[in-house]
Amino acid sequence: xxxxxxxxxxxxxxxxxxxxxxxxxxxxxxxxxxxxxxxxxxxxxxxxxxxxxxxxxxxxxxxxxxxxxxxxxxxxxxxxxxxxxxxxxxxxxxxxxxxxxxxxxxxxxxxxxxxxxxxxxxxxxxxxxxxxxxxxxxxxxxxxxxxxxxxxxxxxxxxxxxxxxxxxxxxxxxxxxxxxxxxxxxxxxxxxxxxxxxxxxxxxxxxxxxxxxxxxxxxxxxxxxxxxxxxxxxxxxxxxxxxxxxxxxxxxxxxxxxxxxxxxxxxxxxxxxxxxxxxxxxxxxxxxxxxxxxxxxxxxxx
Amino acid sequence: xxxxxxxxxxxxxxxxxxxxxxxxxxxxxxxxxxxxxxxxxxxxxxxxxxxxxxxxxxxxxxxxxxxxxxxxxxxxxxxxxxxxxxxxxxxxxxxxxxxxxxxxxxxxxxxxxxxxxxxxxxxxxxxxxxxxxxxxxxxxxxxxxxxxxxxxxxxxxxxxxxxxxxxxxxxxxxxxxxxxxxxxxxxxxxxxxxxxxxxxxxxxxxxxxxxxxxxxxxxxxxxxxxxxxxxxxxxxxxxxxxxxxxxxxxxxxxxxxxxxxxxxxxxxxxxxxxxxx
Lengths: 302, 277
Hints:
The complex is a heterodimer of chains A (about 300) and B (about 280).
Chain A: H1 6-41, E1 44-46, E2 52-55, H2 59-66, H3 70-100, H4 106-118, H5 121-131, H6 138-145, H7 163-191, H8 195-203, H9 208-236, H10 240-245, H11 257-265, H12 269-293
Antiparallel strand pairs in A: 1-2
Helix pairs in contact in A: 2-12, 3-7, 3-9, 4-7, 7-9, 9-12, 11-12
Chain B: H1 3-29, H2 32-35, H3 50-57, H4 61-92, H5 98-108, H6 117-130, H7 139-164, H8 167-175, H9 180-191, H10 193-208, H11 212-217, H12 227-232, H13 242-262, H14 264-275
Protein backbone atom coordinates (compact mmCIF):
# COMPACT_ATOMS: atom_id res chain seq x y z
CA UNK A 1 0.00 0.00 0.00
CA UNK A 2 2.85 2.32 0.74
CA UNK A 3 4.41 2.20 -2.68
CA UNK A 4 1.52 3.94 -4.43
CA UNK A 5 0.63 6.83 -2.14
CA UNK A 6 0.01 9.57 -4.66
CA UNK A 7 -3.69 9.27 -5.44
CA UNK A 8 -4.64 8.31 -1.90
CA UNK A 9 -2.55 11.08 -0.43
CA UNK A 10 -4.01 13.70 -2.71
CA UNK A 11 -7.49 12.42 -1.97
CA UNK A 12 -6.81 12.55 1.76
CA UNK A 13 -5.52 16.06 1.50
CA UNK A 14 -8.56 17.17 -0.41
CA UNK A 15 -11.01 15.34 1.81
CA UNK A 16 -11.52 18.07 4.41
CA UNK A 17 -12.14 20.44 1.53
CA UNK A 18 -15.04 18.34 0.35
CA UNK A 19 -16.56 18.39 3.82
CA UNK A 20 -16.08 22.01 4.57
CA UNK A 21 -16.62 23.06 0.96
CA UNK A 22 -20.39 23.61 1.00
CA UNK A 23 -20.13 25.83 4.10
CA UNK A 24 -17.19 27.77 2.66
CA UNK A 25 -18.90 28.39 -0.67
CA UNK A 26 -22.16 29.51 0.96
CA UNK A 27 -20.44 31.86 3.38
CA UNK A 28 -18.08 33.20 0.75
CA UNK A 29 -20.84 33.99 -1.74
CA UNK A 30 -23.67 35.12 0.52
CA UNK A 31 -21.77 36.71 3.42
CA UNK A 32 -18.23 37.62 2.41
CA UNK A 33 -18.96 38.86 -1.11
CA UNK A 34 -21.61 41.38 0.02
CA UNK A 35 -19.18 42.59 2.69
CA UNK A 36 -16.53 43.20 0.02
CA UNK A 37 -19.16 44.95 -2.11
CA UNK A 38 -20.09 47.10 0.91
CA UNK A 39 -16.45 48.08 1.44
CA UNK A 40 -16.07 48.84 -2.29
CA UNK A 41 -19.14 51.07 -2.42
CA UNK A 42 -17.87 53.03 0.59
CA UNK A 43 -15.28 54.49 -1.83
CA UNK A 44 -17.79 55.24 -4.58
CA UNK A 45 -19.85 58.29 -5.32
CA UNK A 46 -23.43 57.07 -5.52
CA UNK A 47 -26.43 59.23 -6.35
CA UNK A 48 -29.58 59.23 -4.23
CA UNK A 49 -31.18 56.84 -6.70
CA UNK A 50 -28.35 54.33 -6.55
CA UNK A 51 -26.51 55.33 -9.73
CA UNK A 52 -22.74 54.97 -9.38
CA UNK A 53 -21.05 58.20 -10.46
CA UNK A 54 -17.45 57.08 -10.21
CA UNK A 55 -14.85 56.96 -7.48
CA UNK A 56 -15.07 59.22 -4.47
CA UNK A 57 -11.77 58.31 -2.86
CA UNK A 58 -12.04 58.77 0.88
CA UNK A 59 -14.72 61.41 0.35
CA UNK A 60 -17.50 59.38 1.93
CA UNK A 61 -15.40 58.86 5.04
CA UNK A 62 -14.47 62.53 5.20
CA UNK A 63 -18.12 63.49 4.96
CA UNK A 64 -19.08 60.92 7.59
CA UNK A 65 -16.45 62.08 10.08
CA UNK A 66 -17.60 65.66 9.54
CA UNK A 67 -21.19 64.87 10.49
CA UNK A 68 -22.05 66.82 13.64
CA UNK A 69 -23.61 63.73 15.20
CA UNK A 70 -20.88 61.23 14.31
CA UNK A 71 -18.92 61.49 17.58
CA UNK A 72 -22.04 61.18 19.69
CA UNK A 73 -23.23 58.18 17.70
CA UNK A 74 -19.95 56.34 18.19
CA UNK A 75 -19.78 57.04 21.93
CA UNK A 76 -23.42 56.02 22.30
CA UNK A 77 -22.75 52.73 20.46
CA UNK A 78 -20.02 51.83 22.94
CA UNK A 79 -22.12 52.87 25.95
CA UNK A 80 -25.03 50.88 24.54
CA UNK A 81 -23.07 47.66 24.08
CA UNK A 82 -21.19 47.90 27.38
CA UNK A 83 -24.31 48.76 29.40
CA UNK A 84 -26.51 46.10 27.83
CA UNK A 85 -23.94 43.31 27.98
CA UNK A 86 -22.80 44.13 31.53
CA UNK A 87 -26.37 44.26 32.87
CA UNK A 88 -27.35 41.15 30.94
CA UNK A 89 -24.43 39.16 32.29
CA UNK A 90 -24.97 40.29 35.90
CA UNK A 91 -28.69 39.53 35.86
CA UNK A 92 -28.15 36.22 34.07
CA UNK A 93 -25.50 35.12 36.58
CA UNK A 94 -28.02 35.67 39.35
CA UNK A 95 -30.89 34.01 37.51
CA UNK A 96 -28.78 31.02 36.46
CA UNK A 97 -27.86 30.47 40.10
CA UNK A 98 -31.51 30.67 41.18
CA UNK A 99 -32.81 28.43 38.42
CA UNK A 100 -30.10 25.88 39.02
CA UNK A 101 -31.65 25.02 42.38
CA UNK A 102 -34.51 22.63 42.70
CA UNK A 103 -37.77 24.15 43.78
CA UNK A 104 -41.42 23.43 43.13
CA UNK A 105 -42.43 24.89 39.79
CA UNK A 106 -38.88 25.13 38.50
CA UNK A 107 -39.75 23.53 35.21
CA UNK A 108 -42.62 25.91 34.47
CA UNK A 109 -40.65 28.98 35.51
CA UNK A 110 -37.80 27.89 33.25
CA UNK A 111 -40.29 27.71 30.38
CA UNK A 112 -41.48 31.21 31.20
CA UNK A 113 -37.90 32.43 31.15
CA UNK A 114 -37.52 31.23 27.55
CA UNK A 115 -40.37 33.41 26.29
CA UNK A 116 -38.47 36.59 25.33
CA UNK A 117 -35.93 34.46 23.45
CA UNK A 118 -38.58 32.66 21.42
CA UNK A 119 -40.54 35.80 20.60
CA UNK A 120 -39.36 37.93 17.72
CA UNK A 121 -37.27 40.91 18.82
CA UNK A 122 -39.31 43.10 16.50
CA UNK A 123 -42.52 42.02 18.20
CA UNK A 124 -41.12 42.43 21.69
CA UNK A 125 -40.04 45.95 20.75
CA UNK A 126 -43.50 46.73 19.35
CA UNK A 127 -44.99 45.41 22.61
CA UNK A 128 -42.81 47.70 24.73
CA UNK A 129 -43.42 50.68 22.50
CA UNK A 130 -47.13 50.09 22.90
CA UNK A 131 -46.83 49.71 26.68
CA UNK A 132 -44.91 53.02 26.79
CA UNK A 133 -47.38 54.88 24.59
CA UNK A 134 -48.18 58.25 26.17
CA UNK A 135 -51.93 57.91 25.55
CA UNK A 136 -52.76 54.23 26.05
CA UNK A 137 -49.55 52.66 27.37
CA UNK A 138 -49.92 50.10 30.12
CA UNK A 139 -46.71 51.12 31.87
CA UNK A 140 -47.89 54.74 31.94
CA UNK A 141 -51.25 53.67 33.36
CA UNK A 142 -49.47 51.79 36.13
CA UNK A 143 -47.30 54.84 36.80
CA UNK A 144 -50.45 56.98 36.95
CA UNK A 145 -52.18 54.57 39.35
CA UNK A 146 -49.10 54.54 41.57
CA UNK A 147 -49.16 58.34 41.64
CA UNK A 148 -45.87 58.70 39.74
CA UNK A 149 -47.57 60.38 36.82
CA UNK A 150 -50.16 63.17 36.91
CA UNK A 151 -52.00 62.40 33.73
CA UNK A 152 -51.73 60.43 30.51
CA UNK A 153 -50.93 62.10 27.23
CA UNK A 154 -48.43 64.75 28.32
CA UNK A 155 -44.69 64.92 27.78
CA UNK A 156 -44.16 63.33 31.18
CA UNK A 157 -46.05 60.28 29.93
CA UNK A 158 -43.76 59.87 26.94
CA UNK A 159 -40.52 58.28 28.17
CA UNK A 160 -39.41 57.57 24.60
CA UNK A 161 -39.82 61.22 23.64
CA UNK A 162 -36.89 62.51 25.67
CA UNK A 163 -33.29 61.37 25.28
CA UNK A 164 -32.65 61.06 29.03
CA UNK A 165 -35.45 58.54 29.54
CA UNK A 166 -35.50 56.89 26.10
CA UNK A 167 -31.99 55.42 26.30
CA UNK A 168 -32.52 53.65 29.66
CA UNK A 169 -35.74 52.11 28.33
CA UNK A 170 -34.01 50.92 25.16
CA UNK A 171 -31.23 49.40 27.24
CA UNK A 172 -33.83 47.73 29.47
CA UNK A 173 -35.57 46.16 26.47
CA UNK A 174 -32.25 44.98 25.03
CA UNK A 175 -31.36 43.40 28.38
CA UNK A 176 -34.81 41.83 28.51
CA UNK A 177 -34.36 40.05 25.18
CA UNK A 178 -30.73 39.05 25.88
CA UNK A 179 -31.18 37.58 29.35
CA UNK A 180 -32.90 34.28 28.39
CA UNK A 181 -30.17 33.05 26.08
CA UNK A 182 -27.45 34.19 28.46
CA UNK A 183 -29.11 32.54 31.44
CA UNK A 184 -29.52 29.29 29.52
CA UNK A 185 -25.89 29.35 28.40
CA UNK A 186 -24.82 29.88 32.03
CA UNK A 187 -27.18 27.13 33.23
CA UNK A 188 -25.49 24.88 30.70
CA UNK A 189 -22.14 25.98 32.13
CA UNK A 190 -23.27 25.26 35.68
CA UNK A 191 -24.41 21.79 34.60
CA UNK A 192 -20.87 20.95 33.54
CA UNK A 193 -19.44 21.67 37.01
CA UNK A 194 -19.06 18.35 38.83
CA UNK A 195 -20.78 18.09 42.22
CA UNK A 196 -17.64 16.87 44.02
CA UNK A 197 -15.87 20.22 43.76
CA UNK A 198 -18.69 21.69 45.82
CA UNK A 199 -18.38 18.89 48.34
CA UNK A 200 -14.67 19.56 48.58
CA UNK A 201 -15.34 23.27 49.15
CA UNK A 202 -17.89 22.38 51.84
CA UNK A 203 -15.43 20.09 53.59
CA UNK A 204 -12.93 22.93 53.60
CA UNK A 205 -15.56 25.05 55.30
CA UNK A 206 -15.91 27.62 52.56
CA UNK A 207 -18.83 30.00 52.88
CA UNK A 208 -21.52 30.24 50.17
CA UNK A 209 -20.04 33.44 48.75
CA UNK A 210 -16.50 32.16 48.96
CA UNK A 211 -17.52 28.98 47.13
CA UNK A 212 -19.24 31.00 44.44
CA UNK A 213 -16.31 33.36 43.99
CA UNK A 214 -13.51 30.80 44.08
CA UNK A 215 -15.16 27.69 42.68
CA UNK A 216 -18.24 28.46 40.61
CA UNK A 217 -17.13 31.60 38.79
CA UNK A 218 -13.74 30.31 37.60
CA UNK A 219 -15.32 27.09 36.37
CA UNK A 220 -18.09 29.07 34.71
CA UNK A 221 -15.66 31.25 32.80
CA UNK A 222 -15.74 29.39 29.46
CA UNK A 223 -19.54 29.56 29.36
CA UNK A 224 -19.50 33.16 30.53
CA UNK A 225 -16.99 34.14 27.85
CA UNK A 226 -18.92 32.51 25.03
CA UNK A 227 -22.25 33.95 26.20
CA UNK A 228 -20.86 37.45 26.65
CA UNK A 229 -19.06 37.31 23.31
CA UNK A 230 -22.25 36.37 21.46
CA UNK A 231 -24.03 39.16 23.29
CA UNK A 232 -21.38 41.74 22.34
CA UNK A 233 -21.82 40.90 18.67
CA UNK A 234 -25.61 40.74 18.76
CA UNK A 235 -26.13 43.85 20.84
CA UNK A 236 -23.71 45.98 18.86
CA UNK A 237 -25.39 45.03 15.61
CA UNK A 238 -28.88 45.14 17.05
CA UNK A 239 -31.18 47.14 14.87
CA UNK A 240 -34.86 46.34 15.54
CA UNK A 241 -35.12 47.47 19.17
CA UNK A 242 -34.03 51.06 18.61
CA UNK A 243 -35.54 51.32 15.15
CA UNK A 244 -38.97 50.12 16.24
CA UNK A 245 -39.08 52.09 19.47
CA UNK A 246 -37.52 55.47 18.62
CA UNK A 247 -36.02 55.46 15.10
CA UNK A 248 -32.96 56.93 16.83
CA UNK A 249 -34.93 60.04 17.79
CA UNK A 250 -35.39 62.58 19.31
CA UNK A 251 -32.77 64.14 17.04
CA UNK A 252 -30.08 61.48 16.84
CA UNK A 253 -30.07 61.13 20.62
CA UNK A 254 -30.80 57.39 20.66
CA UNK A 255 -29.06 56.46 17.41
CA UNK A 256 -26.27 53.88 17.52
CA UNK A 257 -23.95 53.31 14.57
CA UNK A 258 -26.26 50.67 13.04
CA UNK A 259 -29.22 53.07 13.19
CA UNK A 260 -27.14 55.96 11.85
CA UNK A 261 -26.00 53.79 8.96
CA UNK A 262 -29.62 52.99 8.13
CA UNK A 263 -30.68 56.64 8.30
CA UNK A 264 -27.80 57.65 6.02
CA UNK A 265 -28.91 55.04 3.48
CA UNK A 266 -31.84 57.32 2.68
CA UNK A 267 -29.65 60.30 1.76
CA UNK A 268 -26.22 59.01 0.69
CA UNK A 269 -25.60 55.33 0.00
CA UNK A 270 -21.83 55.82 -0.23
CA UNK A 271 -21.66 57.54 3.14
CA UNK A 272 -23.92 54.87 4.60
CA UNK A 273 -21.53 52.20 3.30
CA UNK A 274 -18.65 54.09 4.94
CA UNK A 275 -20.59 54.01 8.21
CA UNK A 276 -21.13 50.25 7.77
CA UNK A 277 -17.40 49.74 7.33
CA UNK A 278 -16.61 51.81 10.43
CA UNK A 279 -19.32 49.86 12.27
CA UNK A 280 -17.85 46.53 11.16
CA UNK A 281 -14.35 47.60 12.12
CA UNK A 282 -15.61 48.65 15.51
CA UNK A 283 -17.26 45.28 16.26
CA UNK A 284 -14.04 43.53 15.36
CA UNK A 285 -12.07 45.85 17.64
CA UNK A 286 -14.60 45.42 20.47
CA UNK A 287 -14.52 41.64 20.13
CA UNK A 288 -10.71 41.67 20.05
CA UNK A 289 -10.61 43.81 23.20
CA UNK A 290 -13.13 41.52 24.83
CA UNK A 291 -11.14 38.41 23.99
CA UNK A 292 -7.97 40.05 25.26
CA UNK A 293 -9.59 41.16 28.52
CA UNK A 294 -11.23 37.81 29.13
CA UNK A 295 -7.88 36.13 28.39
CA UNK A 296 -9.53 33.78 25.97
CA UNK A 297 -7.27 31.07 24.66
CA UNK A 298 -6.08 32.34 21.32
CA UNK A 299 -5.16 28.93 19.98
CA UNK A 300 -8.05 26.97 18.58
CA UNK A 301 -8.41 23.71 20.47
CA UNK A 302 -8.66 20.68 18.32
CA UNK B 1 -31.63 29.03 54.76
CA UNK B 2 -32.72 31.87 52.48
CA UNK B 3 -33.91 29.30 49.97
CA UNK B 4 -37.54 30.42 49.98
CA UNK B 5 -36.50 34.02 49.27
CA UNK B 6 -34.36 32.89 46.36
CA UNK B 7 -37.20 30.82 44.97
CA UNK B 8 -39.63 33.70 45.24
CA UNK B 9 -37.19 35.87 43.28
CA UNK B 10 -36.88 33.17 40.62
CA UNK B 11 -40.65 32.95 40.27
CA UNK B 12 -40.95 36.75 40.13
CA UNK B 13 -38.29 36.89 37.40
CA UNK B 14 -40.16 34.25 35.44
CA UNK B 15 -43.33 36.31 35.74
CA UNK B 16 -41.54 39.42 34.50
CA UNK B 17 -40.04 37.66 31.49
CA UNK B 18 -43.32 36.02 30.60
CA UNK B 19 -45.45 39.12 31.07
CA UNK B 20 -45.17 40.63 27.55
CA UNK B 21 -46.23 37.31 26.01
CA UNK B 22 -49.11 37.08 28.47
CA UNK B 23 -50.17 40.62 27.65
CA UNK B 24 -49.94 39.85 23.94
CA UNK B 25 -52.23 36.80 24.20
CA UNK B 26 -54.56 38.65 26.55
CA UNK B 27 -54.85 41.63 24.22
CA UNK B 28 -55.54 39.29 21.33
CA UNK B 29 -58.49 37.89 23.28
CA UNK B 30 -59.88 41.19 24.56
CA UNK B 31 -62.81 42.81 22.82
CA UNK B 32 -61.86 45.94 20.88
CA UNK B 33 -63.38 48.27 23.47
CA UNK B 34 -61.28 46.83 26.29
CA UNK B 35 -58.02 47.12 24.35
CA UNK B 36 -58.50 50.86 23.98
CA UNK B 37 -59.65 51.31 27.56
CA UNK B 38 -57.64 53.73 29.68
CA UNK B 39 -58.04 51.42 32.65
CA UNK B 40 -56.37 48.30 31.39
CA UNK B 41 -56.95 45.18 33.44
CA UNK B 42 -54.68 42.14 33.49
CA UNK B 43 -57.65 39.89 32.73
CA UNK B 44 -60.75 39.92 30.57
CA UNK B 45 -64.23 38.77 31.45
CA UNK B 46 -65.47 38.54 27.88
CA UNK B 47 -62.78 36.88 25.76
CA UNK B 48 -63.42 36.92 22.05
CA UNK B 49 -61.89 35.24 19.03
CA UNK B 50 -62.82 38.16 16.76
CA UNK B 51 -59.25 39.27 16.26
CA UNK B 52 -58.06 35.76 15.48
CA UNK B 53 -60.90 35.33 13.02
CA UNK B 54 -59.97 38.59 11.32
CA UNK B 55 -56.34 37.50 11.07
CA UNK B 56 -57.12 34.00 9.81
CA UNK B 57 -59.72 35.04 7.27
CA UNK B 58 -57.85 37.89 5.64
CA UNK B 59 -54.75 38.26 3.52
CA UNK B 60 -53.60 34.69 2.94
CA UNK B 61 -52.52 34.18 6.54
CA UNK B 62 -52.37 30.38 6.31
CA UNK B 63 -50.34 30.67 3.12
CA UNK B 64 -47.80 32.95 4.83
CA UNK B 65 -47.67 30.61 7.79
CA UNK B 66 -46.86 27.63 5.58
CA UNK B 67 -44.25 29.70 3.69
CA UNK B 68 -42.55 30.66 6.96
CA UNK B 69 -42.61 27.04 8.05
CA UNK B 70 -41.08 25.85 4.75
CA UNK B 71 -38.29 28.42 4.98
CA UNK B 72 -37.51 27.83 8.66
CA UNK B 73 -37.56 24.03 8.46
CA UNK B 74 -35.47 23.95 5.28
CA UNK B 75 -32.92 26.23 6.90
CA UNK B 76 -32.82 24.07 10.04
CA UNK B 77 -32.24 20.82 8.14
CA UNK B 78 -29.75 22.18 5.61
CA UNK B 79 -27.86 24.20 8.20
CA UNK B 80 -27.53 21.19 10.50
CA UNK B 81 -26.16 19.03 7.68
CA UNK B 82 -23.72 21.55 6.25
CA UNK B 83 -22.54 22.71 9.69
CA UNK B 84 -22.07 19.13 10.86
CA UNK B 85 -19.84 18.28 7.90
CA UNK B 86 -17.85 21.49 8.30
CA UNK B 87 -17.47 20.93 12.05
CA UNK B 88 -16.11 17.44 11.43
CA UNK B 89 -13.64 18.88 8.94
CA UNK B 90 -12.29 21.53 11.31
CA UNK B 91 -12.03 19.18 14.30
CA UNK B 92 -10.95 15.89 12.77
CA UNK B 93 -8.53 17.11 10.15
CA UNK B 94 -5.68 19.48 10.58
CA UNK B 95 -5.12 21.34 7.38
CA UNK B 96 -3.47 24.55 6.39
CA UNK B 97 -5.57 27.67 6.94
CA UNK B 98 -7.72 25.85 9.52
CA UNK B 99 -7.37 28.71 11.99
CA UNK B 100 -7.91 31.24 9.20
CA UNK B 101 -11.12 29.49 8.19
CA UNK B 102 -12.35 29.45 11.80
CA UNK B 103 -11.56 33.13 12.21
CA UNK B 104 -13.39 33.86 8.98
CA UNK B 105 -16.45 32.13 10.41
CA UNK B 106 -16.22 34.20 13.59
CA UNK B 107 -15.84 37.48 11.69
CA UNK B 108 -18.72 36.53 9.39
CA UNK B 109 -20.83 36.32 12.54
CA UNK B 110 -20.19 40.01 13.24
CA UNK B 111 -21.65 41.47 10.07
CA UNK B 112 -24.77 43.56 10.61
CA UNK B 113 -27.27 42.29 8.06
CA UNK B 114 -28.94 45.70 7.74
CA UNK B 115 -25.73 46.99 6.14
CA UNK B 116 -25.77 44.28 3.49
CA UNK B 117 -29.29 44.48 2.14
CA UNK B 118 -28.32 46.37 -1.02
CA UNK B 119 -25.47 44.07 -2.16
CA UNK B 120 -27.55 41.05 -1.12
CA UNK B 121 -30.45 42.26 -3.21
CA UNK B 122 -28.24 42.45 -6.31
CA UNK B 123 -26.61 39.12 -5.49
CA UNK B 124 -29.96 37.35 -5.22
CA UNK B 125 -31.18 39.05 -8.39
CA UNK B 126 -28.09 37.87 -10.29
CA UNK B 127 -28.20 34.34 -8.88
CA UNK B 128 -31.86 34.26 -9.86
CA UNK B 129 -31.05 34.74 -13.54
CA UNK B 130 -28.84 31.63 -13.43
CA UNK B 131 -30.90 29.53 -10.99
CA UNK B 132 -34.55 30.67 -11.06
CA UNK B 133 -35.44 28.79 -7.86
CA UNK B 134 -33.41 31.15 -5.65
CA UNK B 135 -34.03 34.49 -7.35
CA UNK B 136 -35.98 37.48 -6.10
CA UNK B 137 -39.50 36.78 -4.88
CA UNK B 138 -38.80 33.12 -4.17
CA UNK B 139 -38.73 31.18 -0.93
CA UNK B 140 -35.50 29.64 -2.20
CA UNK B 141 -33.77 33.02 -1.89
CA UNK B 142 -34.82 33.29 1.76
CA UNK B 143 -33.64 29.74 2.45
CA UNK B 144 -30.28 30.36 0.76
CA UNK B 145 -29.54 33.61 2.60
CA UNK B 146 -30.72 32.42 6.01
CA UNK B 147 -28.76 29.21 5.57
CA UNK B 148 -25.54 31.08 4.81
CA UNK B 149 -25.97 33.50 7.71
CA UNK B 150 -26.82 30.69 10.15
CA UNK B 151 -23.71 28.68 9.29
CA UNK B 152 -20.87 30.52 11.07
CA UNK B 153 -22.55 30.23 14.45
CA UNK B 154 -23.77 26.69 13.81
CA UNK B 155 -20.26 25.54 12.89
CA UNK B 156 -18.76 27.19 15.97
CA UNK B 157 -21.26 25.42 18.16
CA UNK B 158 -20.98 22.04 16.47
CA UNK B 159 -17.21 22.16 16.71
CA UNK B 160 -17.38 21.70 20.47
CA UNK B 161 -19.64 18.67 20.14
CA UNK B 162 -17.59 16.87 17.54
CA UNK B 163 -14.42 17.53 19.52
CA UNK B 164 -16.08 16.01 22.61
CA UNK B 165 -16.58 12.64 20.88
CA UNK B 166 -13.50 10.51 21.59
CA UNK B 167 -11.65 9.61 18.42
CA UNK B 168 -11.15 6.11 19.80
CA UNK B 169 -14.80 5.45 19.03
CA UNK B 170 -14.28 6.16 15.36
CA UNK B 171 -11.08 4.11 15.33
CA UNK B 172 -12.93 1.19 16.87
CA UNK B 173 -15.61 1.45 14.20
CA UNK B 174 -12.93 1.61 11.54
CA UNK B 175 -11.28 -1.55 12.87
CA UNK B 176 -14.68 -3.22 12.69
CA UNK B 177 -14.62 -2.42 9.01
CA UNK B 178 -16.88 0.61 8.89
CA UNK B 179 -16.30 3.02 6.04
CA UNK B 180 -16.02 6.78 6.40
CA UNK B 181 -19.65 7.28 5.51
CA UNK B 182 -20.84 4.78 8.07
CA UNK B 183 -18.67 6.33 10.78
CA UNK B 184 -19.94 9.78 9.91
CA UNK B 185 -23.65 9.03 9.86
CA UNK B 186 -23.99 6.01 12.16
CA UNK B 187 -21.40 6.82 14.83
CA UNK B 188 -20.68 10.55 14.93
CA UNK B 189 -24.04 11.95 13.87
CA UNK B 190 -26.13 10.37 16.66
CA UNK B 191 -23.55 11.40 19.24
CA UNK B 192 -23.69 15.07 18.32
CA UNK B 193 -27.49 15.15 18.07
CA UNK B 194 -27.94 17.32 21.20
CA UNK B 195 -25.67 19.90 19.61
CA UNK B 196 -27.76 19.81 16.48
CA UNK B 197 -30.83 20.57 18.56
CA UNK B 198 -29.18 23.64 20.07
CA UNK B 199 -27.97 24.96 16.72
CA UNK B 200 -31.36 24.23 15.18
CA UNK B 201 -33.02 26.44 17.75
CA UNK B 202 -30.86 29.35 16.67
CA UNK B 203 -31.31 28.88 12.95
CA UNK B 204 -35.04 28.29 13.40
CA UNK B 205 -35.79 31.49 15.32
CA UNK B 206 -33.57 33.57 13.05
CA UNK B 207 -35.45 32.37 9.98
CA UNK B 208 -38.90 32.34 11.58
CA UNK B 209 -38.72 35.77 13.17
CA UNK B 210 -36.98 37.49 10.29
CA UNK B 211 -38.38 40.71 8.92
CA UNK B 212 -35.47 42.22 7.04
CA UNK B 213 -34.68 39.50 4.49
CA UNK B 214 -38.35 38.87 3.82
CA UNK B 215 -38.84 42.53 3.00
CA UNK B 216 -35.66 42.71 0.92
CA UNK B 217 -36.16 39.72 -1.35
CA UNK B 218 -39.92 39.19 -1.54
CA UNK B 219 -40.84 42.45 -3.22
CA UNK B 220 -43.83 41.71 -5.42
CA UNK B 221 -44.82 38.04 -5.19
CA UNK B 222 -47.74 38.11 -2.77
CA UNK B 223 -47.97 34.33 -2.64
CA UNK B 224 -44.39 34.00 -1.42
CA UNK B 225 -44.66 36.39 1.51
CA UNK B 226 -43.86 35.09 4.96
CA UNK B 227 -45.52 35.82 8.32
CA UNK B 228 -44.07 39.30 8.96
CA UNK B 229 -46.02 40.51 5.92
CA UNK B 230 -49.22 39.26 7.52
CA UNK B 231 -48.36 41.15 10.68
CA UNK B 232 -47.54 44.42 8.96
CA UNK B 233 -51.01 44.57 7.41
CA UNK B 234 -52.40 45.65 10.78
CA UNK B 235 -50.11 48.65 11.10
CA UNK B 236 -51.94 51.60 9.68
CA UNK B 237 -50.74 55.18 9.48
CA UNK B 238 -53.84 56.59 11.21
CA UNK B 239 -54.49 54.00 13.88
CA UNK B 240 -52.89 50.63 14.48
CA UNK B 241 -55.22 47.66 14.81
CA UNK B 242 -53.78 46.40 18.09
CA UNK B 243 -56.21 43.49 18.38
CA UNK B 244 -55.13 42.25 14.96
CA UNK B 245 -51.43 42.84 15.66
CA UNK B 246 -51.61 40.94 18.92
CA UNK B 247 -53.61 38.05 17.44
CA UNK B 248 -51.19 37.72 14.51
CA UNK B 249 -48.21 37.97 16.88
CA UNK B 250 -49.71 35.28 19.08
CA UNK B 251 -50.18 32.94 16.14
CA UNK B 252 -46.59 33.66 15.12
CA UNK B 253 -45.06 33.22 18.57
CA UNK B 254 -46.88 30.19 19.95
CA UNK B 255 -45.33 27.63 17.55
CA UNK B 256 -41.82 28.83 18.42
CA UNK B 257 -42.58 28.79 22.12
CA UNK B 258 -43.90 25.21 21.87
CA UNK B 259 -40.81 24.21 19.89
CA UNK B 260 -38.54 25.80 22.50
CA UNK B 261 -40.30 24.16 25.42
CA UNK B 262 -40.19 20.81 23.62
CA UNK B 263 -36.42 20.97 23.21
CA UNK B 264 -35.73 22.85 26.44
CA UNK B 265 -33.92 20.01 28.18
CA UNK B 266 -31.81 19.21 25.14
CA UNK B 267 -31.12 22.92 24.85
CA UNK B 268 -29.27 23.03 28.17
CA UNK B 269 -27.22 19.93 27.44
CA UNK B 270 -26.77 21.24 23.90
CA UNK B 271 -25.43 24.58 25.00
CA UNK B 272 -23.18 22.82 27.50
CA UNK B 273 -21.25 21.21 24.66
CA UNK B 274 -20.84 24.55 22.99
CA UNK B 275 -19.70 26.53 26.02
CA UNK B 276 -17.07 24.18 27.42
CA UNK B 277 -13.95 24.65 25.47
